[in-house]
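Posted in: Protein Modeling Q&A

I'm a second-year student putting together a small comparison for a lab meeting, and my supervisor asked me to include a predicted structure for Peptidyl-prolyl cis-trans isomerase. I've never done this before, so apologies if this is the wrong subforum. The sequence is pasted below exactly as I got it from our records. If anyone can share the structure token output, I'd also love a short note on what stands out.
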Amino acid sequence: MQISKDTAVEFHYTLSEAGEQIESSKDGEPLSYIHGTEGMLPGLEKALEGKSAGDSFSVTLEPSESYGERVDDLIQRIPLKHLQGNTKVWKPGMTAIVHSNQGRHQVTIVKVGRFNADCDLNHPFAGKTLTFDVEVLNVREATREELAHGHVHGEGGCGHSH
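Accepted answer (user: helix_wrangler)
Welcome! Here is the predicted structure, written out as tokens:
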């Protein structure tokens, strides 16, 4: 089956910039998404279109096709209690997850105070030309429930109630 609108896709990727590996899913769980529902970077989704399980390919994306250009002075003060991550102590340079009305965002901590942190709201990969090495593992029709929820469900369902 080929990747097309409303297919559930599972793939491994290795992400690099200028030949330097930044991150990889190979040591953990593969990434999964529903094709055509804006749940994936536009340039990567375009490259995945028409591929099948077992296909491997490489694609290089300009910032406009991935995380956008950096915006200078995109700093916001955020209460420490709203920062999520694997740490109790925040330090400049660390990344954290923040949930807002617009969804989940990855931010970089610039300065930490007693109750708040000044955070750079640019995605850490903004302004970078990125290369994705992709290995497609699985392609199938998304279920009605997955389409309604907008994401792929694991074997035990999706784990959240609606």
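A couple of things worth pointing out for your meeting: The domain at 7-67+127-149 is CATH 3.10.50.40 (Chitinase A; domain 3). The mean pLDDT is 90.
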